[in-house]
Description:
It contains 27 helices and 32 strands.
Amino acid sequence: MVNEERDGYEPSTVEDKWQRRWEERGTNSFTLDELRSATDPYYNLMMFPYPSAEGLHIGNIYAFTGADAHGRYQRLRGRTVFEPMGFDAFGIHSENFALKVGKNPMDLIPSNVANFTRQLKRIGGMFDWDHSVDTTQPEYYKWTQWVFLKLLEAGLAEQKEAPVNWCPSCKTVLANEQVVGGECERCGTPVEQRRIKQWFFKITKYAQRLLDNLGHIDWSERTKKSQINWIGRSEGARLDFPVVDGDGKETGTAIEVYTTRPDTVFGATYMVLSPEHPLVDAVTNPGLHAPVYAYRDKAKQKDLVARQKVDKTKTGVATGGFVLNPASGEKVPVWIADYVLMGYGTGAIMAVPGHDERDYEFAGTMGLEIRPILEVDGEPLAPGEDSPRARYVRSAGPGVSLDGLDVAAGKRAIVAWLEESGHGVAASNTKLRDWLFSRQRYWGEPIPVLHDDEGNTVPVPESELPVLLPELEDFQPSGRPEPLLAKATDWVEVTDENGKRWRRETNTMPQWAGSCWYYLRYIDPRNETGPVDPAKERAWMPADIYIGGAEHAVLHLLYARFWHKVLFDLGHVSTKEPFRKLMNQGMILGENSEKMSKSRGNVINPDDVVEELGADALRLYEMFMGPLEVDKPWSTNGIQGIARFLDRAWRAAQLTEPDSGDPHERARHRTIRKVHEDVERVRFNTAIAALMEYVNVLTKAETATAEDKRVLTLLLSPFAPHWGEEVWSRLGHDASLANEPWPEFDPELARAEMLTIVVQVNGKVRSRFDVDPDLPPDDVKAQALADDAVIRHLEGKTPRKVIVVPGRLVNIVV
Ligand code: ANZ
């Protein structure tokens, strides 16, 4: 293939050689002293991979290469860059694979890790292998268990029986975050609801801070939004509806509801209790016990997420009981329906079918009264609709009237009246639920607590950590909620020094545990006395940038922030947030923009690509495909073009000096400026395009100065590090280019020659001005429309069309 044309550039030998040298010279590893004393530290963190048996996929390589190019750039800029790598190896993926091949995951993981390490070294990442972690190693999970004990001590871990999501295919419970549209996030199986005693972390206590601190970190808007929505904070009121008997007399009990729209109380024509609500028995008319109980039993089997869907056909049954609407004094019927959940608000709602869509649908199905109480120009608002012009009607009762007010005023007035009259209080709520943390599978960290026969639970003393995961021969999940570890009877039974017998906790931690704090352990992975040395933690945290997949927005990223805040409160870390800046890379798609998958047969194997064209071609190609955050299709032609570009650049670095002067000075400074500005914004694709242009300039001239070669090599090196080192050494340097300074540009020399833009109004030339050739078309257009002569010729009319011909012309049609 292309090798004959390569003029001596032979990627496989060059790449092998430099990978060996980096390792021998410790180019990318830190000593302890360097770690402690770095004056300008830059913690370049990327989401660590789970080491599957298949090896790294091209998407992993994409994320890691983007992060690595960024890290290499920061290093050339003079920062001390820490770029660790590790393995997130507990969890159901590894366990299922182990079951499939009939081996213990303990025996499989090391070979997967070895294969991943080989591949990661092969792509030339600047990884500091002396600071690697593997979450399944006892010296690592000892500290994961330690964090669990800290949460327990702080009163943030509790065991309780509750309705939970059960995935019948994964044969374990799931956290709410793992249920997407009623299905298991991992395998797509509809989840079932079960009542089982489980471990929960009280993440809800941190909801407000998890929200508030989003304002202080530089994260993609998309991810922030996902967290805000997931936490789901709302403002409203809680109000009491007294229960009345058949004659309308108050029984002394009241049912409290949570509503975000207390102002719509005059439109509340019925009430709905969650089937699990504790007052269902008390309100149900004895004659209706049979249908009410039958409905309740059926609801138990449904999962919580499916129950909340707006478009789901609503079901429910009347209890025959009544409550009083506190504002209107009317008697309204009480129903039970599964669209109201026990775990949210108070588990009871005032139903306002005139304005709430779900209530509207339910009322329609059940023939209940629909009473809109907000109108615009005499027309009622539709359910779910909002308008600043809406005013209340039919909203007056003993003690309060909202008629004629707008919504903002109505909300204030009703809350004031509720509080004054004692019918209710202003209240807020969050959708976030406590984090269900235990799992019934084998391949996870044991939870370090002991239980006795009387139901007491005690932590395993810190000195006895880690609680080692026992080796189980048969770890096939049973499908019953009893955890697998219960089978390890020798391990489960413990006798303490007083002869008292205990049973070990047999639930394991979920796959999210190890990844909640690995970025701390990277800094100090061999520490035996604590999770991380405080001085090193202070030097390196928070991570300056965190690059990884967008799918972790409300799973890993929420959990890690929560653990970090707890560790901060307990004085174990010095920063409130773990990750200062977050970037999400896009996906690499198949050649036809479809997802890559084994079943489609369109998976690109990175080993094959590296074998054929070299790691640098792969790296450079992936970075050239487009902005890091965007999804983009793979192109075999594209990567071959990039391999040829590396050859051209190789030859350019060997061109002879010009006879005199510095003919490419301006082009060189322009290139430095463009590459610098683009790389700074993580716009690698346009930076690479600028380097291609520069290589064309040199190639055409058939000359290059030493300075041209120095600049080209350094600028290209973050993307093609092996190529860079080889060229650098051939230019006569002994030391690695990784510690060289990043080239600087002179703004005067970097200024591009200006282009003259002609502006036409209705086909006639009316003005001219000069612009920088890099000015985006929208800015050129804006400048044309702001031009004095143009404004005169527009005579106050609005242009119908503005056409920009880049670099030449703006045509305005009025
Ligand atoms: C009356 C009303 C009128 C409501 C209206 C909304 C619109 P967010 O905003 O998501 O927090 N609700 C309260 N508790 C519920 C539960 N346990 N299960 C299902 N729905 C529940 O939602 C708050 C609103 O969701 C509450 O405000 C309540 O309906 C409903 F025009 O009360 B609203």
